[in-house]
Structure formats: structure tokens, C-alpha cells
Design brief:
Shape: globular
Largest sheet: 2 strands, antiparallel
Number of strands: 2
Order of helices and strands: HHHHHHHHEEHH
Strand order of the largest sheet: 1-2
Strand content: under 5%
Length: 246
């Protein structure tokens, strides 16, 4: 009998990949500016984190405790984030990404509450309102990735089903968010005498490969590992912020 070989990712492997990619991007942004490849692969981190926020919502035993953890670590991460971004303790012009996720979690919960009413028109209206709220809140609160960051989480929420149309929706929405909303540096590539333009931010779509290989498995899991995921963010920001100021 042949054994069926299947490549797949787990929640643990996705978290580790996202943390490593994020570290590469932050290293480029603070201390290793000349290595552009670091930020290219760093683009992959955010969509994975955004996807895991949606998965976390549906797998947590308590949404309130999940939101509280995000809130606590968002507060703990603020000074390290300020040190890395603005080289100062107080930097009100940009907020860390955990605030982005906290707002996103609230909008997911809003939609799930509307879904529980079992009225299609309520669900549709709530969906439109949440997209509008993502735009407004993302810009007004100055959270990391602004409205584009919140919308990325909502993309994985609205297109969560493992259907062909969900995969197409994810690709199209992430392409628009990353190339049109976020934009950024564009590379000109010469190929067979023709010049093609490629957005650096478009590397974010490579995150869909490990995301699509995920089938709901947790991998190794314990309470200590869960807090490692949370602590990694403020600790690496603090270290990079201190090194940047030296």
C-alpha cells in the first residue's frame, strides 16, 4: 500500500515563519539597509500574521481573553516600537501592529455577531460597514499598515472558506491592497528586451503558499510557546531599537 505524501504547514510553523520574516524586515529597516532582499522576504510576514489572527478568533476558547492578550501586549510593545521606529520613548505618529490586529479582531466579532442573527441583509450591511470602519480607523489611529493592514485581516475573514473563489478573492484583494494601497518601491525587470515593473510589496503574495498549505493542524502547542509568540514582538523591537540608537 502506497503512503500518500502531503506537504502542509501547521499553526506553529506559520508563526515561526512569520516571526523570522518579520525579523528580516525589521533588521533591514533599522540596521542593515543595504540588503534589500531582507525587506523583500519580510513582506511575506504580515499576511501570515493576518491569517493567523482570523484562525485565532475561530479557535480560541474565549474571544475576550484573546482580545485582552492582544491589548496587554500592544501596550507592552508600544515603547519598544517607538524606540525602533522613532528612536524615542514617545512617538505618537505610528502605532504598533498589535493595535491593527486588535481593531481587526473587533470587526471580525462584529461580523460574527451579525451572522448569528441569520439575516443576509444584516450580514451584507455589516460587511460594508466593517470595510468602511477599517478605512477610517486605520487612518485615524495611525496603526501599523494603516487601513491596508486591517483590510488584509478582513480579506482572510471574508474569504476563509476553502473554495476556488476564496483563493481567487485572496489573490485579487491582496494584490490590490499591496500594489495599489501600500505601493512603495517598484523594480524594473528586463526580460527578452522588454521591461516589466514589479512592486516590492507584491512579494507579500508569496505568503499565500504556506497559508494554503495549512489545514487546521496546531503542531506542537503549549502555554509557554504561546507566550513566546507574543513576547517575541516587543523583545525583538526593544533590542533593535536600542541597537539603532547606539
Amino acid at each position: 500500500m502506497k503512503t500518500r505524501f502531503r506537504i502542509e504547514t501547521t499553526s506553529m510553523s506559520l508563526h515561526i515563519m512569520a516571526m523570522l520574516f518579520m525579523l528580516c524586515d525589521h533588521l533591514w529597516g533599522t540596521n542593515i539597509f543595504s540588503n534589500d532582499w531582507l525587506t523583500c522576504i519580510g513582506r511575506i510576514a504580515y499576511p501570515i500574521f493576518a491569517f493567523m489572527i482570523v484562525e485565532g478568533y475561530f479557535h480560541t476558547r474565549s474571544v475576550k481573553k484573546y482580545a485582552l492578550r492582544l491589548l496587554i501586549f500592544a501596550v507592552l510593545s508600544e515603547i519598544p516600537f517607538n524606540l525602533m521606529i522613532g528612536s524615542r520613548i514617545f512617538y505618537p505618529l505610528h502605532q504598533n501592529v498589535l493595535w491593527t490586529f486588535l481593531i481587526s479582531l473587533g470587526l471580525i466579532h462584529l461580523n460574527e455577531t451579525a451572522k448569528a442573527k441569520n439575516k443576509p441583509w444584516v450580514q451584507i450591511c455589516t460587511g460594508f460597514i466593517s470595510v468602511l470602519a477599517a478605512y477610517v480607523l486605520g487612518i485615524l489611529t495611525l496603526v501599523d499598515f494603516y487601513h491596508a493592514g486591517i483590510l488584509t485581516v478582513l480579506v482572510f475573514y471574508f474569504f476563509r472558506q476553502r473554495k476556488w473563489w476564496s483563493y481567487i478573492g485572496q489573490v485579487l484583494c491582496l494584490w490590490y491592497i499591496n500594489t495599489e494601497m501600500l505601493g512603495g518601491l517598484v523594480y524594473d525587470i528586463q526580460l527578452s528586451g522588454c521591461t516589466f515593473s514589479f512592486h516590492r510589496q507584491a512579494f507579500a503574495l508569496l505568503a499565500l503558499i504556506p497559508i494554503w498549505l495549512y489545514h487546521g493542524k496546531q503542531g506542537h502547542k503549549n502555554k509557554a510557546l504561546q507566550y513566546v509568540y507574543y513576547l517575541f514582538y516587543p523583545l525583538h523591537l526593544l533590542i533593535l531599537g536600542i541597537v539603532k540608537m547606539l
